Amino acid sequence: MYILNKNIKLTENDDTIVWKYLDLSKFLDMLLAHQLFMSRSDKFEDQYEGTFSEPTYEEIKKIAANNPKFLDYYKSHREKVVISSWHANEYESFAMWQIFTKNNEGLAIQSTIGRLKEALKPEKHYEQYIGEVNYIDYKKDFIPFDDTFFPFLFKRKSFQYEREIRIISDVSKTNLTIDNGLKIEVNLNLLIEKIYIHPKSENWYKKLVIELVEKLGFNFTIEKSDLESDILI
């Protein structure tokens, strides 16, 4: 269940459209398990994920001079934070198709921030938050560290095109062992508003996705990407 945290920035517009671009195998795994995969924060491609900007790090070093465990905590904490990333955009993104899908196959889940909030099922041992990522200059800008989630809600400006919304959880108070990530329970019928098929995919691929979704008992609206619409002249 989504927990409101006043310190975490998030638009109040629940109708804000968000997208998740993924390959067919990951999508089918989601449908079969009725679960959403959340990646361990230190497993992302960006090596700066969950780290601090230079001005913040200088402040932390001063504190750690008399308390070495303070710095050790932040280093190990990345292994206990899990994240599901979504792209905020009114329309499909050609760049996101290119980055997150391969071989002209894959699909995009269209949802909204309101649907994300409603779809998350209560977890007994940890809380789930939703927040917008802030894009900053890591050489100049300060990242607050009075909230343990803050390092995971900031990224370098070079990733600004991602326009990322994150579902984020800290499992450090549990006995869970996290390898690459964690699957969480979700209501997929609430989570998924529509499915878009890769713009470069063949007709057989769309048919395959429709058949698989139907056999698994879902009735999502499935469409071919708008990026491959017929030319009018």
Could you explain the architecture of this structure?
This protein is α+β, with helices and mostly antiparallel strands. It has one domain (17-228). It is 27% helix and 24% strand. The chain contains 7 helices and 11 strands. The chain has helices at residues 24-33, 54-64, 68-77, 94-100, 113-119, 188-191, 203-215; strands at residues 17-22, 35-40, 81-88, 107-112, 128-132, 134-136, 154-156, 164-170, 181-185, 194-197, 221-224. Strands 1, 2, 3, 4, 5, 8, 9, 10 and 11 form a 9-stranded mixed sheet that branches. The chain has a two-stranded parallel sheet with strand order 6-7. Strand 10, helix 7 and strand 11 (221-224) form a beta-alpha-beta unit. The protein is globular. The model has no long low-confidence stretch (mean pLDDT 89).
List strands and helices in order, with pairings.
Layout: E1 17-22, H1 24-33, E2 35-40, H2 54-64, H3 68-77, E3 81-88, H4 94-100, E4 107-112, H5 113-119, E5 128-132, E6 134-136, E7 154-156, E8 164-170, E9 181-185, H6 188-191, E10 194-197, H7 203-215, E11 221-224
Parallel strand pairs: 6-7, 10-11
Antiparallel strand pairs: 1-3, 1-4, 2-3, 2-9, 3-8, 4-10, 5-8
Protein name: DUF2971 domain-containing protein
Organism: Flavobacterium haoranii
Descriptive tags:
233 residues; alpha+beta; 9-stranded mixed β-sheet; two-stranded parallel sheet; globular
Q: Indicate how many domains the architecture comprises.
A: 1
* Total beta strand runs: 11
Mean pLDDT: 89
Question: Helix tally?
Answer: 7
Main pleated sheet: 9 strands, mixed
Distance between the termini: 49 Å
Structural class: alpha+beta
Helix content bin: 25-40%
Radius of gyration, CA atoms, in whole angstroms = 19 Å
